[in-house]
Amino acid sequence: MILVTGGAGFIGSNFVLEWLATGDESVLNLDKLTYAGNLNNLASLRGDGRHMFVQGDICDRQLIDRLLNEHRPRAIVHFAAESHVDRSIHGPAAFVQTNINGTFNLLDAGRAYWSTLVGQARDAFRFLHVSTDEVYGSLGPSDPPFSETNPYQPNSPYSASKAASDHLVRAYYHTYGFPVLTTNCSNNYGPYHFPEKLIPLVIANARAGKPLPIYGDGQQIRDWLYVKDHCAAIRRVLSDGRFGETYNVGGWNEKANLDVVHALCDILDEMDPRPAGGSYRQQITYVADRPGHDRRYAIDARKIERELNWKPLETFETGLRKTVQWYLDNDAWVRSVQSGDYMKWMERNYSQRDNVEEQA
Ligand code: NAD
Ligand code: TYD
Question: Quick check: CB of 198 below 6 Å from ligand 2?
């Protein structure tokens, strides 16, 4: 079996569902169920003996030691993290705790467990750390995309905490020979994406007749990857990646935020027209920018293509249509995650961003 951390979050739950749909190896899923974790994402696995869920914290060393020794996984796939940049600006401490201390704890417990393995079990064991392109900082308009050798220049508490965790993972390989693999992926989108992030937030707000908030001038660029393509890349790195290596994963889909929001409005206009008529674009509202907002991310994904023969299958157009369709079909899921805590976050993040003059 494999141990997955954060398997009730956005990417983790997609990974667990895909893993069990494409093979028979069991999953031990450890997740703290923070605001971002949701067991409803895994509802289709109820009664499936191949999935074992444990609610717990990656910072709890005793728990991790017990789980590793009792279940003896052949790999750890580590998704658990605090993941939202805006939340890291309002409250960085949780990011340091989970992303840095939690990853350290998991690495150290993983190494202790690995050191007890012998023969084939020891050779087969691996620890895959799921990280982000944000560790590389921000690109200028004509800079080449991030490759695996770009220097780390994180700019937000979120990206700084992920950078620190990447460094610890690297150090455990170089110092102890612990068999690690790291992936640095660009922005994901798709089913089960929590509606605090741009794409699901815009879909949810559009349908609720609420403003579609664009930070600053909306010309910040992200490189979007459909979540199932990311999950396929992780499976490939887990099976064929070389220990100690990092692999950049991206969709070759650089888009300005405003273009993403326009594309979403156009798809919604077609699939779910506004009851009042007119385009959802009318709901776009420019708001104060994110402090320290990175201008551009882009991934050079040639290494994983060349060495591991992975390429994204979805284009931005096909992936976005699938995503909008999923949200239209899963209104109950969206409503269930828009709890009291969610409303508090929306108030906290958006109430101090006075609307600003339209800039485009
Ligand atoms: P998410 O916020 O949707 O989910 C994170 C999950 O981790 C949640 O289920 C949460 O309950 C769990 N968790 C948080 N703290 C925990 C703790 N201390 N112990 C155990 N579980 C805990 O995040 P996501 O978007 O699915 O991202 C997953 C991973 O992928 C993260 O490491 C993130 O940095 C990385 N990543 C995300 C993106 C993206 O676009 N979302 C892109 C690249 C990399
Ligand atoms: P987000 O989904 O938070 O991902 P990340 O910050 O990890 O890239 O944001 C994607 C982009 O969209 C980012 O440039 C910030 C911008 N954005 C808005 O313009 N408005 C919003 O309400 C949100 C949440 C994000």
Answer: yes
